Amino acid sequence: MRFYAPFCLPFLIGVAVMFSLIVWKYVVWFAELPRADKKRVLYGIPTPRTLAAVWEVIRECLLHRRIFRVNPLLGYMHMSLAFGWFLLIVVGWTETVAYLGLHWVPLQGHVFFRYFAPPLMLRDKPFFDFTMDLLLLFVLSGVALAWLKRFWSRAMGMRRTTRHVPGDRIALSALWFIFPARLFAESITCGIYGMGGFLTGGLGALMASAFGRSTLVVFEQGAWWFYSIALGVFFVALPFSRYMHIFTEIPLIFLRRYGVRPHEKESSGDQFQIQACSRCGICIDPCQLQSVLGIDNVQSVYFLRDRRYGMLTRDVAQNCLMCGRCQVKCPVGIDLNTLRLNSRDTMRNTPDERRYEYFAGLDRSEGAGKVGYFAGCMTLLTPRTLSAMERIFAAAGEEVWWADRNGGVCCGRPLKLSGETDSARRMMEYNTQLFRRHGIRTLVTSCPICLKVFREEYRLDGIRVVHHSQYILEMIEQGRLRLGRGMATYTYHDPCELGRGSGIYEEPRRVIEAVGALLEPAHTREEALCCGSSVANTVISDADQVRIAESVAGELAATGADAIVTACPLCKKALVRGTSSVEVCDLSEIVAKNLR
Amino acid sequence: MARRVIIVGGGVAGIQTALTLSQRGIPTLLLERESELGGKLTGWHKLFPSFTPAHEVLDELRQRLNGSGVEVRTQCEVCHVERSGVTLASGERLAADAVVVTTGFTLFDARVKEEYGYGIYDNVYTTADIERMLNEGRVAMRDGSAPRRIAFLHCVGSRDEKVCQHHCSKVCCITGVKQAMELKEMFPEADVFNFYMDIRMFGPGYEEMYRDAQQRLNIHFVRGRISEASPTLDGRVQIKAEDTLTGRPLKMSVDMLILIIGMRSNASNAVFAADAGLQCQPSGFLAPRDLFLHNTESNVGGIFYAGAVTAPKNIGESLSEAVVAADRVTEYLKRA
Predict the structure, then answer these.
(1) Residue of B109, B159, B228 to mutate when probing chain A, most A C-beta within 10 A
(2) Would you say the C-alpha torsion A85, A87, A93, A96 has a positive or negative sign?
(3) Same structural domain for residues B79 and B186?
(4) Within an 8 Å CB–CB cutoff, is residue B233 touching chain A?
(5) Same domain flag for B139 and B236
(6) Which of A381, A383, A543 has the CB atom closest to B164's CB atom?
(7) What's A494's DSSP letter?
(8) B244 and B145 share a domain?
């Protein structure tokens, strides 16, 4: 049996180029991983995590469960293309086995089986004819949706879709033609030999009766050539295009299961994340820079694209609120914020050694309690919160060690967010030593920005770090704070760093419900909007920040609540600038006001 | 038939416009939101640089108005402005052949700069509070005692990106100098500090006054803004600032912190602009047709401006502009 025809060449070359490039990329990225990450992978392989990863690959790479959850139509499109194509390959392989037994059949023999089958005088197997045609129809429905998405994205539930680079356009065009080309090539062959299922056989018979069998014979070779070229072009373009995600999501899932994640410094492992981005553009719609300010070239999809092709500018890297709204929607689960942070680190980490000399011997703290309170810079700039906390601590009978009431050193997160990692580290070390020296057991902060960095970057073994919303709730539950519940209604704005950033959604709500009624805005919890004044964005102007704040405050005020409550001094300052009609206050203020 | 002009806002600019128009025999209706005419000047004690009592200016304007035949309606808030007339909050519509918008400005709300503790701590005041206290004849700390150290902070709500007030309010520098001198003369033993970014002495006699404040009264001027304020246990205010001339941070406890608040554009400007197709500047102040030959005309025929509704101005400038606006209105009515 010979499974060769000249038209197979473009396909074979394409496959060879694609796989060598992909393997080369993966080998290089893995080899350049930090030692600790390599160890994690090696130790992780013989554990149940491998099985979990396999299951996740099936769920995500084939079925696209997460996209389904965000957007069902888009999920169907991805599933029909990925899972459909996968089944075409698997069932196609089974089909050749069914015909020929377990004989070695070269790759092109499987792929172009319809072409090679008639000369082999194989009898029809109606089950495979039907199944293969059904699968082809499944994939074609996905292709049709892809066309629809490109020309009319709103029909797919997306306001905006991604703008692509040339490599993407070549691959995309080739991909669009692969399955229609396959349909025609198979139909023509089926038409000539009078075989095939309902789709290829039907279309083949139709064409045979319309044009005559002899015409089809003339076109047969051309059609198969076209199909092969479409495949070849797609495969060659794939490693240079967004379609690299088809394969890269698989190692990414395994690496993630083994605990390999992006760090504060760039590493080759980041490439597994960056090149697993399918540029689906789901991250564009949630971005408030886009929806409020009309900035449409900085979203995660463009950041990853620019970084991948080495054309990342500071403006794109820095122009992000890091609110995390896109990250919760990302169907690939890419660690978007960390990747942006380590890009910023690469661009901006220029420590000034002498700038922090004043830390030596500095200690402005006061008090001697086992509970420490760290106001943070933003709370010091919103003194209503600070004085409310003073009253709350007094009411709870807590002896407090005040870390920075008379001024202190920044927690380091703003610098870290801007990429000045080493300078941030200096501050973290200073504060860590300060906390340790005073022997505190609990550290309370009213700033979610500080909270996040204390929890994630500081090594504070033996010190429990809590947000003031958590602390207040504990005090209420222990009966140490007695509150009067009034008739006032409140709406709550989830701060990004507290909610999506630290997973604290419940505690502030329960504290609010202890003093009044809570009204939820349209976007809440994981979906909550960003106040717009994030310290992570050093590009947009204050006027732009206010425009975002106005849109958010408008949504909060639409609940009809008497006051907007938040649990972050920065959010509070932002929202105050965005509204003149509704009072904006910190959680601690309404608690202090309702103390009994 | 004589044509009627409506003037929206009875501050100094509005009164002067009305007076000039009525002198020319044009029927004029002056609308004022508050119960008495005079606008912001009613709350002021003395005017820079001559320390002229504000009421002297105001009394004379009111006197002239009484004999002028200008129709005045107070407690009358205008909600909508069009070239053909205005609509009041009550829903009443008043027709006019020309409208002059003289609604002035809004004082910056110092509570927005929460870090300075206005409305939170005792002994933090604004320049408007000080004028009121001077009018009442008693300036004192919350507990009634005389201040021994006073700090003025310039540019609160002016030239401040953080609160989206990019513009310079122009008259606050000299106001700060004036009040510093008044308080120093009232409390000769007290140390008086002015924290500033730039001192802009644009008017006649201002620079001389600034020099006098330093040389004769020994008022201290520190270049640097205050970053934050906090209360001390004994009810004073601790401020943190940077002396940018020496490049050193400084901390100081003061008995009074006085915030020199700037001028911001009225929220109504945007409403009027939307009603009548008027143009606003990025600062929110209404935009005159140009800054030179048509500085009291709007981009819409029949609607005119005078005073601080187009930009921060001092009393003298507002009064002169009012005469120009009246002149342009007269011309417009003749042509129409």
Answers:
(1) B228
(2) negative
(3) no
(4) no
(5) yes
(6) A543
(7) P
(8) yes
Identify the CATH number of the domain defined by range A360-474. 3.40.50
Clarify whether residues B176 and B64 are in a common domain.
Answer: no
Residue of B164, B166, B253 for testing the chain A interface, max A β-carbons within 10 Å: B164
A·B CB contacts under 8 A: 35
Query: In terms of residue numbers, what domain contains B52?
Result: 5-105+265-335
Write down which residue in B262, B291, B315 finishes a domain.
Answer: B262
Domain end, chosen from B233, B262, B291, is at B262
Q: What is the CATH number of the domain that holds B115?
A: 3.50.50.60
C-alpha span between B249 and B227 (Å, rounded): 10
Q: Do B120 and A384 touch (CB under 8 A)?
A: yes
Q: How far is B159 from chain A (nearest CA, A)?
A: 12
Closest-CA residue of chain A to B114 = A382
Give phi and psi for A535, each to the nearest 5: -70, -10
Residues B53 and B195 in one domain: no
Digit-coded pLDDT (tens) for B167-204: 999 999 999 999 999 999 999 999 999 999 999 999 99
pLDDT band at A148 (very low <50, low <70, confident <90, very high): confident
Residue ranges of chain B whose pLDDT lies below 70: 1-2
Q: What stretches of A238-382 show up as alpha helix (H) in DSSP?
A: 245-257, 270-274, 288-291, 300-308, 314-318, 325-329, 336-348, 376-380
Considering the domain architecture, whether residues B98 and B202 belong to the same structural domain is answered as: no
In this complex, is the C-beta atom of B267 within 8 Å of any C-beta atom belonging to chain A?
Answer: yes
Specify the fold of A269-346: Fumarate Reductase Iron-sulfur Protein; Chain B, domain 2 (1.10.1060)
Tell me if B163 and A383 make a contact (CB, 8 A cut-off).
Answer: no
- For helices B54-66 and B12-23, the axis angle rounded to 10 degrees is 30
A458-473 mean pLDDT = 96
Cα B121 from Cα A452, distance rounded (Å): 30
Model-level ipTM above the cut of 0.90: no
pLDDT band, very low/low/confident/very high, at A123 (cuts 50, 70, 90): low
Please tell me the pTM assigned to this model.
0.86
- The answer, for B117 touching chain A at a CB cutoff of 8 Å, is yes
The number of domains in chain B is 2
CB atoms within 10 A of CB B257: 27
Q: Are B42 and B58 in contact (CB under 8 A)?
A: yes
